[in-house]
Specification:
By secondary structure, the protein is of the alpha/beta class. It is built from 17 helices and 27 strands. The strands form nine sheets. Strands 13-14-15-16-17 form a five-stranded mixed beta sheet.
Amino acid sequence: MSASTTFEVLCQAAQRWPDKTAVVDSGSTITFAELHERTIACARAFVGAGLEHGDRFAIWAPNSINWQLATLAGQAVGCVLVPLNTRFRAGEAEDILVRSGARGLFYCKSFLDTDYAGMVAAINAPRLKQRIDIDRLEDWANESGHCESLENRMAAVTGDCLADVLYTSGTTGAPKGVMCTHEQNMRVFQTWSAGVTLGESDNYLIINPYFHSFGYKAGWLAALIRGATIFPMQFFDTAKVLERIGKSAISFLPGAPTIFQSLLAHPHRAAFDTSSLRCAVTGAASVPVQLVRDMKHKLGFEEVYTAYGLTESTGVVSLCKPGDDFETIANTSGRPMENTEVQITGADGLPVDVGEQGEIWVRGFNVMKGYLDDSQATAAAVTQDGWLKTGDIGVLDARGYLKITDRLKDMYICGGFNCYPAEIEKILFGHPEIRDVAVLGIPDERLGEVGHAFVVTSAEVAPDEIIEWARNHMANYKAPRRVSFVDELPRNASGKVQKFVLRERC
């Protein structure tokens, strides 16, 4: 029987593979049975600490066993996960904590020379009642008391209950909370994990961050569904990844194309053993045919899959299948998931012919329940008959394979992360000397795309100063890598910046 909630998946895994290793993290291991036992102990603490069914809890920390435990425990008693990007600065985190109404926050004290404890202490979020050092998760569980109503709380969680709210930005510049249910997560990633042949014999190296659906849902949740052993990594280091592949016989490795390009480019790659590699999943940027060839012939992958999805589609829209040729893998994003629909839509809202370009619309069980507390944005994104407007331009070929050809929005992808110029511009306007600014993505050999800011200033400022200021006020991947100064931004009669004019100056 298929599970419809996160906790049901955990129970099934503990029954089916009780003594099998579920997680290997920093030298410590935990079996599926132990994961189940520790989740229940932590779930009691959620209830004992006064977190009610439907309350939101945030996690602001890198990949770890405790990240997974906190999520499993909270969701087991009906609480709703709100992941925070570890690259956020205090203002960005506070904005989401306030707007999500989060009542609990699990955070790491420090990570990559960043003082998260200091930022957390400065955050003003009136509804936030619990601030827990995630490294002391077990201590918190022991200190929070026990509850008599745990079974009732767990029984009240059904597939229709919200599981998470993942924040994603848009052209307005304000991140929006995408609501997905337990059953959506289960159906999508039961389908996805079967499609990419993830299985109980796999050792899954998770480099993708847990705050992103690629690391969370297509990461440890998919592994839990299939009984795979996971090896979380907190950040990408080429040599350490190559070392871990050989040491732990890693067989399953998803990631952005940048990851595989870096592995291939390592000067001492031949000295590492990558013979255990079996399956790779990539996407999030254009994938050169030669990269797919090199992944198979030089890194030794038996299968390479590309996929397409967005947060609003519970992370997945389409996926390649086993046996697809190099050109199909590189040039398309596969076929739509079973029991979902993809329509290429013209400006008139009607479907176009096969082979013609149009906006990609998606309909099915993978479409979000809406944006949290934003009915206007939800109505703009999802039609009354259930079509999600993705904002991406694509083509369906005669085989039903989807190719992404352009974007309606200005969004660009830096190192696998979506970057939204309107959001970046809004933050840059906080610089005391910036009077006007426009940001667009430009090609970059290593990261795919990076930001280029065109700036109008009120005083003389060095480009490096603006870049450094940006890195201190926003996630690193959002910060522009290039700055150009202009006397004024080109605008049309309605005042909209003509970014195509700026692009000619790049």
